[in-house]
Amino acid sequence: MFAKNLFAAMLIALLLAACGNNGSSGSQISTSHMDAPEKTGAVYKANCVSCHGSDLQGRMGDQTNLQKVGARMTEPEIAEQIKHGGSSMPPFEDRLTDEQIASLAAWLASKQ
């Protein structure tokens, strides 16, 4: 009985360690598989992934799917949307720098 409990405890510890913190704070969703530049991916991960998903698939309906956003919006339109929000999206002009907004818009505009 003791051996079974010890094995179960070791298995749980191993599984928890595999899911552990990699030294960063915040969401554990990785954007390394995305084609975003590193800094842009980090901004996306910190500010956008909760509504738009780790694969740009959208998590709050079709309007949050960004997989082909560049086919329906221009880069300036995307930047404007990020900056001022709209519909159910909050504005990010007070949370992101103009440079961060521009890099997100450029990257997202390439999603055709």
- Overall mean pLDDT: 79
CATH structural class: Mainly Alpha
Please give the number of β-strands: 0
Please state the second-level CATH architecture.
Answer: Orthogonal Bundle
Distance between the termini: 58 Å
CATH superfamily: Cytochrome c-like domain
The string of secondary-structure elements, in order, is HHHHHH
Blueprint of the fold:
Elements: H1 2-18, H2 38-47, H3 49-52, H4 69-72, H5 75-84, H6 98-109
Domain Cytochrome c: 21-112
Protein name: Cytochrome c-551
Signal peptide: 1-23
Describe it.
The structure is a single chain. The N and C termini lie far apart (58 Å). The model is unreliable at 5-33 (pLDDT under 50). The chain is globular, with a radius of gyration of 19 Å. The protein is an all-alpha fold and 112 residues long. It has six helices and no strands. It has a single domain, classed as Cytochrome Bc1 Complex, Chain D, domain 2. Helices cover 51% and strands 0% of the residues. The longest helix is centred in the first third of the chain and has 17 residues, at 2-18.
Short structural description:
The protein has 6 helices and no strands. With 112 residues, the chain is an all-alpha fold.
Give short descriptive properties of this protein.
112 residues; mainly alpha; Cytochrome Bc1 Complex, Chain D, domain 2; 51% helix; 0% strand; globular; signal
